[in-house]
Amino acid sequence: MRNIILSIIGVLVIVASFLFAKKLIADKNKPKPVQAKVVKTVFTDTIQNATIPIVIAANGNLEAKRRLEIYAEVQGVFKPGSKLFKPGQEYKAGQSLIKIDASEYYASVQSSKSNLYNSIAAIMPDLRLDFPDVFDKWQNYLTNFNLNKTTPKLPEMTSDKENFFITGRSIVSNYYNVKNLEQRLAKYTISAPFSGILTEALVTEGTLIRSGQKLGEYIDPSVYEMEVAISKTYANLLKVGEDVALNNLDKTETYTGKVTRVNGSIDATTQTITAYIEVKDANLKEGMYLEANLNAKQEKDAIEIDRNLLLENQQIFVVKDSLLDVIDVKPVYFSDTKVVLKNVPNGSIILKKAVPGAYAGMLVKPFQDKPVTKDQQ
């Protein structure tokens, strides 16, 4: 019985070995599956060279073109006026911004004017006797002399004798002394040189003001300037009078400015040149941050593409016979996201969007929009 069982097991082992060997031979002779080629679908664009405007992006803060920092040249108490000296207060041209109490100084000015009047009146008898031909003009001067008005100019002297006589009586020196005092008296009142608005007030009514003290800041809110720094590469391209498109950070408001000045020197540290853009708009405020787009030049026979399509060795991918290839190009301007290129032949088919892992010789298929049929609708 045992021999029978062993015989059966031996037969089964032989049969299994035969079947296994047959399977190995069949697998060895079986052809390997051919791997299907992967064809990537890419977005392409057909090139047509044109004139590309090179627009330089810059930014900066607005500052009032006409600004006045108010300082005191005399000392005294700030007198209340018709308007409160507060930030945001508007004034017309010629209106008083600040009036400083000048009572004591005004009295000294009147005293000097009175002394001048008396000096001229004292020489009138001598003029009548020695210089009868000039007596009338000096008499008219005294008649028109008003202590409550600005001291009039002395009569013009027509001869050396008259000049020596008048000067010898210290009348000329007294006259200029009075004019000097009147000039200083005018500094007790600070008037608005132009219509504008007060943006900073450092004193209030009743404050004792000292000479040299800063009192506030005053601006004209109708005209603003923006200072922008441009690369020295475009120093020769910026032109005074060129229009500039401006917009806020949210891109919700657009303004039109004009290049009014271009600095004649280049900053040695940053190698940039400063341009000043003038802009007018009722909605603008000092300190606003704006972005500017300056039209530097027109580049002929060029194209503009995304910067990520330009390879490191100044080449770009083109599609030829369903294969990727590279051509050499000449970049002429870089912006944050775009690059302007030359030497790209018309009719070339280039990639419109970057393809990860792209290489020369890669098999691609240009993407085509299929028209929607009535059945698909």
| Count of discrete alpha- or pi-helical segments spanning 4 or more residues | 5
Secondary-structure element sequence? Answer: HEEEEEEEHHHHEEEEEEEEEEEEEEE
Shape type: elongated
Strand portion: 35-45%
Question: Helix/strand/pairing class, anyone?
Answer: alpha+beta
Strand order of the largest sheet: 3-12-15-14-13-16
CATH architecture of the largest domain: Beta Barrel
Radius of gyration: 45 Å
Can you describe what's shown?
This protein is an alpha+beta fold. Residues 371-377 have low confidence and may be disordered. It folds into 5 domains: 1-30; 44-52 and 300-366; 55-64 and 221-298, Efflux pump adaptor protein, beta barrel domain (Elongation Factor Tu (Ef-tu), domain 3, Beta Barrel); 67-101 and 188-219, RNA polymerase II/Efflux pump adaptor protein, barrel-sandwich hybrid domain (OB fold (Dihydrolipoamide Acetyltransferase, E2P)); 104-186, no CATH class. The two termini are 81 Å apart. It is elongated. It contains 5 helices and 22 strands. The strands form 6 sheets. The protein has a 6-stranded antiparallel beta barrel. It has helices at residues 2-29, 103-130, 132-144, 160-168, 171-186, and strands at residues 40-42, 44-46, 50-64, 67-71, 76-79, 90-91, 96-100, 189-191, 196-201, 208-209, 214-219, 224-231, 243-248, 254-266, 272-279, 289-306, 315-320, 323-328, 330-334, 338-342, 349-351, 364-366.
